[in-house]
Amino acid sequence: MTDGDTRTDRRLERAILELLEQRGPAATICPSEAARAVHAAAGGGGDGGDGWRGLMEPARDAARRLVAAGEVEITQGGRVVDPSRARGPIRIRRAR
After folding, report:
1. What is the pTM of this model?
2. What are phi and psi of 21, to 5 degrees?
3. Are 6 and 58 a contacting pair, CB within 8 Å?
4. Which of 15, 27, 62, 89 falls 20 to 30 Å from 52 in CA-CA distance?
C-alpha cells in the first residue's frame, strides 16, 4: 500500500465518522457519501462528477476497519451484518 492510499484510507475513515457525527445518534450513511466527500475535498469534479465511484470499495474497506475498531456497524435491511459477508448496498451507523 502506498502513502497516497494510506492517506486516502484515513480520509475515508474520518469522513465516515464526521458524517455520522453530523447526524442523529440513530442515523446511517451510505459509503458513497464518504466517497463523494473525500473526492470533493481532493478537488474532484473535473471528471464529469462521478470520479468518486473509484473510492467506493475503499470506502467500504474503511467501514470494515471501523467495524473492527468497534466504532461503527454495517447494516443491510436495518440489521447488523458481518462485514466480510455483506454483498450489495450497505449502510453504516455508529456502534451500539
Report:
1. 0.89
2. -65, -35
3. no
4. 27
Q: DSSP of the chain, one letter per residue?
A: --HHHHHHHHHHHHHHHHHHHTS-TT-EE-HHHHHHHHHHHTT--TTTT-GGGGGHHHHHHHHHHHHHTTSEEEEETTEE--TTT--S--EEEE--
Q: What is the pLDDT, as a whole number, of residue 2? A: 39
How does pLDDT run across 44-77, given as a tens digit for each residue?
765 557 889 999 999 999 999 999 999 999 999 9
Predicted confidence at residue 44, as pLDDT, reads 78
Instruction: Kindly tell me the burial class for residue 63, based on how many C-beta atoms sit within 10 Å of its own C-beta (0-12, 13-18, 19 or more).
Output: buried
The number of distinct structural domains making up the chain is: 1
Q: 25 phi and psi, to 5 degrees?
A: -60, -25
Crossing angle of helices 3-21 and 31-41, rounded to 10°: 120
Q: Output the nine-digit C-alpha cell for 27.
A: 442515523
Range of the domain at 27: 3-94
